[in-house]
Design a protein that fits this description.
- The protein is mostly helical.
- The chain has three helices and no strands.
- The protein has a domain of about 50 residues.
- The longest helix has 26 residues.
């Protein structure tokens, strides 16, 4: 049975579901892009193996998050169906 407790949205979540969504998505995409650039440059510095594994995981997480946001932007009506 579903709980009827009201859902309290964070400010970011509220913006995502309102008219400001495009601005928020652009801001998040910018942050993810900067993080990817940072992690990529760290990898080029030949980190120790344990650090390299951690950095690769962070880089892949950023890429995955960016793809999710981009897929929502392309097709918001079907975003939650997949």
């Amino acid at each position: 049975m579903l709980d009827d407790t009201p859902i309290h949205l964070t400010e970011l979540e509220r913006k995502l579901w309102n008219d400001e969504a495009g601005d928020v998505r652009r801001e998040i995409l910018g942050i993810l892009s900067a993080a990817e650039d940072n992690f990529q440059s760290q990898l080029q510095g030949n980190p120790v193996p344990d650090d390299r594994t951690y950095i690769l995981k962070l880089l892949n997480a950023c890429k995955a998050a960016r793809q999710i946001i981009l897929s929502y932007r392309r097709s918001p009506a079907t975003f939650f169906e997949s």
